[in-house]
Each structure stands twice: as structure tokens, then as C-alpha cells.
Automatic annotation (TrEMBL):
Residues 373-691 form the Phosphate acetyl/butaryl transferase domain. Its main location: cytoplasm. It catalyses: acetyl-CoA + phosphate = acetyl phosphate + CoA. This is Phosphate acetyltransferase. One of its GO terms (molecular function) is phosphate acetyltransferase activity. Pfam families: AAA_26, DRTGG, PTA_PTB. It is found in: Cytoplasm. Residues 215-325 form the DRTGG domain. Its EC number is 2.3.1.8. It comes from Salegentibacter maritimus.
Length: 697
């Protein structure tokens, strides 16, 4: 059975790294263990490591020793080739690959980079390696600086070379293509490639080719005067500040890199002021040339500014520095998280590799891993896009998450809040949010305010609500967002980044209400542990549930698990296992377990049971040898909020597990609560959960 795929190119700077990062993300969403291997890497200074290997290992948290990820450096291959030891090269590569093959379900193999001495014969070496490993190939060809005839020639040559060696080509990628030429590029490939070969075209993306300030500092051997924390800033373009300030300001573009002599205090201060002004684009950094630095009084003024971009001093003159910056070829580094995420996002937008991966794998993994789970969430959200409202539209974290969700094309979004404040916040944090792809509503000025207030009045007048009170409620973002769901203007809501749980949930309880036969709104966390995903409930809502409520929480949690691809095995947790324990608390858990068994005899459930007996197979079998749940539980129901909340946080902190949630269950339509300490990733994941919940309603 095939267990690998080879990514090959014919040239340097083809964008092969994008394909490897994107494809690794795809594979990790479908398989338990994916390995990474590079037969030949670039030469690296003694004591240093290959940057691209470190990037892949670090970002995807692959547990592979560095020395197992490659076979040779380029100079070693050249030397052995000159010595007539080509066979030894292949033997060593096969040996190292087979070692990984035994340890992993699938191996992503990335060919060489075509840079430096020996690149003339590199393509042939890659063909031979793929042939001897017996794995299919994806070919990547850059369209940059090529006309149609040249691009087609490269592609046909590459395909024939692999075909002649009887190496299966399963996909070809035209990379760095002008946006308007994407479809013609695919049509040209399809004209000469068999139908079973996938064809893809990816546009040229400026932000991926522009260097970061960190790369510029390294190339120029510069001294960082200010802004050490922002060296990951990417340059959009660069220009020399030599004219008068009033004229230079008109030349600034978004993410501009300002290059100016170190004694031009007017340009320096003007650029910094423009950076914090909503009337000018954001700048990425300032390079001071000629070895000159501003006077102490100017440095003191800069230090006192609220926002400072990287300011770098270099010895070379302005002309030389400008040429050197223009010649820098940008790379992706392990700490370039934004750049990596952008790369993967672009891959997923333009490359639909799923059908080809299915053919490659012929693999049916047991259970579900965190990578599979998270990948599945993204795919399910994208399959049937839902409309999610985010009431806290002025929060920087919400806006950052919104950009990522929109860029990934996962949901339709509505942000609530003052329109001007939202626009100013986006400008302040330098977020390239496409406002044409997101709805913004200020409830106070909304044309629907009167209608929503009337609806709320009709729903709550029996509780003493009058029209003035109803209108006041609808000016509140949480109430307005919830009413959007009630009226069908949105499919779900995520809030809580700046509001309490009660503020988020109360409107939903008042008029969204619970599902039929459900009286308890509860919550679950999807705990992404190292090798599995468990469902923890209830860790956020119910302080001291009764036996009846515990049973209902268990059933709701099992249904949530099933809805997200987890075959539920429920553990009703307590301080004792089986019939050994006595006392009101354990009796309540025992009673809840019996209620579930009577109502849902189809569910696998065990309780009361201790945590270790629930998740550790050896402990589970020793304490409850006849149980089909003990040691295998994946839905863990805690007896009270104190236990549940502390346990999920302890597991999260001590193991590094990703806790996705809380996801509320039991409501007629999905409303989910964030913690006020939530991260951008928390918001991103919770919105995706909410969208998938909405698909099932």
C-alpha cells in the first residue's frame, strides 16, 4: 500500500514550500501520524539546522528527530556523485525513508530546492529518488517571469521525465500565476495531462514574497534601535525618503518600508506619525542609512511615542541599501506564524487536494485525532456556510479572528458595533480586513431596530416588558444579535469576549429557548489531547445539577459528540467506580446513569466511574472488567461545575491540550459563550463550532 507523496520542482523559488505546508495540513487532517522527509537539503553552516525542516517540525509539532528528516546535504551528494557513489546515495535515502515509513501512516517527501552548485542535475536526482521510493509525485512549476510557451515547456518536460521513469504524477501546480490567468493555466495543463492527474493554479501573492524586517536586519547586518517585538512585520513595498516630508507622505503605501538617511529627523518622525494616523497607511519599518542615528532629543521623542515600528540603523549608503533590500528573497521561518497561516490559507483556497489524497491513502484510521478533528471542522464549515453574528465587533481579537474566518471562506459574518469605531480599530491594528466580505451593523442606527423591538415586546410583554424597555434591550448588542437569530437573519451567535456568560446566554433563554424535551442548557469542551479528542461536560454552566439534569447533560453531550464525528462512550465521573462508593454525591451520579440507560438504551455509558478508570485501559479493565466504556471513554460528564471547570483547565494547562469551547447545547439555535480571556484561536474555533451546530438545525 502506498504510504507517501513526493513534491518536486524544476527550479528555485517555485513556491514549493507553500505546497508542502498546505499538503501537510491536509494530510494531518486525515491521518493519525504523518512524517516529513527531505532526501537532499541545502548546505547549512556547522551547528545550524535547515530552516524549512525546522519550520515544518515546529509549526505542525511533528515528533521526528531532526537527523531523521533528511539524508544528505547538497555538497555531500555532489561529492559522492563525483566519487562514483550514486548508488550509495539512493541506498541511504531509501533506508532513511523506510525507517520513517515504519513509524508513520504516511510520509510527505519534499524534493530539493535547486539553489547553488549542482542544480543542473538536481531534477534527474529527484526523478530517481521518487522512482526508488515508489511513491507518486506532485510537480510544482512557477509561472513568474515566464510566458505561456516557456511555462508549458517546463511542465511538459517535467511530466515526461517522471512518466519515462514510470513514476506516477498525481498532480501539477502552476504557482505564482497572475490572478486573471488562473483558469487559462489550468486549461493549458489539462490539455496535455491525463484526466486522473489533478491540475491546480495558485496566484502570485505579494505578501509571501516580501521580506520581513527580521530578514532585512540579517541581510544588512543592521542594528535594531526600536521595535524589537515587531521584526516579524512584512514589507509591502519600499521607498527612499529623500524629498521634503510633505511630498514624501503622499508616496506612502500600506506596509511601506521607509529607507532614509539617519539624520533626516523630519522623515523619521513624519513616518511614525503617519503610522498612527487613520489618514495614512500603516508602515512596516524604517531603515536609517549611512551609519547615522538621530540626535538624543529625537531618540527621546521616539521612545515616548505610543506606537513604534522597527527602526534599524545600517552602515551602507541609501542607494546600496535600497538595492540590497530589493534583492532579498523572502523565506518562511518557524516563528513566522502569520506568514505560515497565510500560506496554508492560500493553498486551501486554490488547491482542492482531497479527492487525490483519498486515492493516495486507501486508509481507514481508527478513532479520531486532534488533527483529524480540527481539519474536519474546517471542511464541514466550508461545505455549508452559515451566517454567524459577532456582537463584540469592536474587540481587536474578534476582528482578527473575523479576518481569518473570511480569508478561509468558512462563514458569513456580521459584526455589531459602531461602524466608525470598527473601521478605526481595524486601521489601528493594521488588519487587512476586506469590509466588502463582512456585514457591519450598529444596532442603535439599524433600520430593523423598531421591528426587533416590537417582536421582543410581543414575546416578553407577559413579563411586564413595555415598548420603551423593548427598544432599550434591542440597542444592546447581545439582545440584537440574538434577535437576528430568532428572526432568521443569522444562523448563530458567538459572544463573551467582553461580556459575562449571563449577558450572552440570558437573551437566548428568554426567546430562543430550549429544544423540545430539553430543560437544561449545558456546555461541552472538545479537549484535543495528544492522541485523541475527548468531550468534557458540563464545565461552564450548571453549578450543581440534579440526577435528572446530569442525565440530560449526558444525553446532550453524547449527541454533540456524534454530531462532530465522535462515537460516544460516556463516563459518568465520580470519586468511586462501580458499586463500591457510598454517599449522596455518588448516588446522584448512579441515579443519573440509570436514567440515561432507560431513556437511551442505545448509548454506551458507565457510571459512577473515576477519571483514571474511564480513560486508562489498564485501570479501567482492573476496576470494571466487563465494561465496554471503562478505559475507552471519550465523553466525560463531571458531577458538578466546580469539578468540571477545574479539571478541564488543569488538563489544558498541564498537558498543553487545545480546549475548543465551551459549546452550548440544548438551545433551539446555537449561541456560544467565550471567556473574557479568550484568544483569537478560541474565537476562530468557537465560530466554526457554532456554524457546524447551525448546519444540524
Amino acid at each position: 500500500m502506498n504510504k507517501g507523496i513526493y513534491i518536486a520542482t524544476l527550479e528555485s523559488h517555485s513556491g514549493k514550500s507553500m505546497i508542502s505546508l498546505g499538503l501537510m495540513r491536509t494530510l494531518l487532517g486525515k491521518m493519525v501520524k504523518v512524517g516529513y522527509f527531505r532526501p537532499v537539503i541545502n548546505d547549512v553552516p556547522k551547528g545550524k539546522r535547515d530552516n524549512h525542516i525546522d519550520t515544518v517540525l515546529s509549526y505542525f509539532d511533528l515528533k521526528i528527530p531532526y537527523e531523521d528528516t533528511f539524508a544528505f546535504t547538497r555538497s555531500e551528494v555532489i561529492q559522492k556523485r563525483n566519487e562514483g557513489k550514486s548508488g550509495e546515495i539512493i541506498d541511504t535515502i531509501i533506508s532513511k525513508y523506510k525507517k520513517l515509513e515504519k513509524e508513520f501512516d504516511f510520509i510527505l517527501v519534499e524534493g530539493s530546492d535547486f539553489s547553488g552548485e549542482g542544480s543542473v542535475f538536481e531534477f534527474d536526482v529527484n526523478v530517481v529518488i521518487a522512482k526508488n521510493l515508489g511513491i507518486p509525485v506532485v510537480i510544482v512549476v512557477s509561472g513568474q517571469f515566464k510566458n505561456w510557451e516557456e511555462l508549458l515547456g517546463y511542465q511538459q518536460m517535467a511530466y515526461r521525465a517522471f512518466k519515462d521513469k514510470e513514476v506516477q504524477v498525481i498532480g501539477m501546480v502552476s504557482n505564482k500565476i497572475k490572478q486573471e490567468n488562473l483558469e487559462p493555466a489550468k486549461k493549458n495543463m489539462r490539455a496535455f495531462l491525463p484526466e486522473e492527474v489533478g491540475v491546480f493554479a495558485i496566484p502570485f501573492v505579494d505578501t509571501l514574497n516580501n521580506p520581513t524586517l527580521k530578514e532585512i536586519v540579517q541581510v544588512l547586518n543592521g542594528k535594531v534601535l526600536f521595535g524589537h517585538d515587531f521584526l516579524d512585520n512584512q514589507t509591502g513595498n519600499f521607498g527612499v525618503g529623500a524629498m521634503q516630508l510633505r511630498n514624501y507622505l503622499t508616496t506612502l503605501k500600506n506596509e511601506s518600508l521607509v529607507i532614509t538617511p539617519g539624520d533626516r529627523a523630519d522623515i523619521i518622525l513624519g513616518a511614525l506619525q503617519a503610522n498612527i494616523s487613520s489618514n495614512y497607511p500603516r508602515i512596516s519599518g524604517i531603515i536609517l542609512t549611512g551609519g547615522l542615528t538621530p540626535e538624543d532629543s529625537i531618540l527621546k521623542l521616539i521612545e515616548g511615542l505610543s506606537e513604534i515600528v522597527p527602526i534599524i540603523s545600517v552602515k551602507e549608503g541609501t542607494f546600496a541599501v535600497t538595492n540590497m533590500v530589493g534583492a532579498i528573497k523572502s523565506n518562511i521561518y518557524a516563528d513566522s506564524i502569520q506568514k505560515i497561516q497565510t500560506t496554508i490559507s492560500i493553498f486551501e483556497r486554490y488547491v482542492s487536494f482531497d479527492p487525490l489524497v483519498e486515492k493516495l491513502m486507501n486508509y481507514n484510521p481508527q478513532g479520531i485525532t486532534p488533527r483529524m478533528f480540527q481539519y474536519g471542522l474546517v471542511q464541514r464549515a466550508r461545505e455549508s456556510k452559515k451566517h454567524i453574528v459577532l456582537p463584540e465587533g469592536t474587540d481587536e481579537r474578534i476582528l482578527t479572528a473575523a479576518k481569518r474566518l473570511i480569508d478561509m471562506n468558512l462563514v458569513e459574518l456580521t459584526l455589531l458595533g459602531d461602524v466608525d469605531i470598527i473601521h478605526k480599530t481595524v486601521a489601528k491594528i493594521g488588519l487587512d480586513l476586506d469590509f466588502s466580505k463582512v456585514n457591519i451593523i450598529d444596532p442603535i442606527n439599524s433600520p430593523n431596530l423598531e421591528d426587533y423591538a416590537k417582536t421582543f415586546y410581543e414575546l416578553r410583554k407577559h413579563k411586564g416588558v413595555n415598548m420603551d424597555m423593548a427598544k432599550d434591550r434591542m440597542c444592546d448588542v447581545s439582545y440584537y444579535g440574538t434577535m437576528m437569530i430568532y428572526k432568521g437573519a443569522a444562523d448563530g451567535m458567538v459572544s463573551g469576549a467582553a461580556h459575562t456568560t449571563q449577558h450572552t446566554i440570558l437573551p437566548a433563554l428568554q426567546f430562543i429557548k430550549t429544544k423540545p424535551n430539553v430543560s437544561v442548557v449545558s456546555s461541552v469542551f472538545f479537549m484535543c489531547l495528544e492522541d485523541r479528542v475527548s468531550v468534557f461536560g458540563d464545565c461552564a454552566i450548571n453549578p450543581n445539577p440534579s440526577a435528572e439534569e446530569l442525565a440530560e447533560i449526558s444525553i446532550s453531550s453524547a449527541e454533540s459528540a456524534s454530531a462532530f464525528g465522535i462515537d460516544p462512550k460516556i463516563a459518568m465521573l465520580s470519586y468511586s467506580s462501580g458499586s463500591s462508593g457510598k454517599g449522596a454525591d455518588v448516588d446522584r451520579v448512579r441515579e443519573a446513569t440509570e436514567i440515561v440507560r432507560k431513556r437511551r438504551p442505545d448509548l454506551k455509558i458507565e457510571g459512577p466511574i473515576q477519571y483514571d478508570a474511564a480513560v486508562d485501559i489498564s485501570v479501567g479493565k482492573s476496576k470494571l472488567p466487563e465494561s465496554e466504556v471503562a478505559g475507552q471513554a471519550n465523553v466525560l460528564i463531571f458531577p458538578d461545575l466546580n469539578t468540571g471547570n477545574n479539571t478541564y483547565k488543569a488538563v489544558q494547562r498541564e498537558t498543553g491540550a487545545l480546549a475548543i469551547g465551551p459549546m452550548l447545547q440544548g438551545l433551539n439555535k446555537p449561541v456560544n459563550d467565550l471567556s473574557r480571556g479568550c484568544t483569537v484561536a478560541d474565537i476562530y474555533n468557537t465560530v466554526i463550532l457554532t456554524a457546524i451546530q447551525a448546519q444540524g438545525i
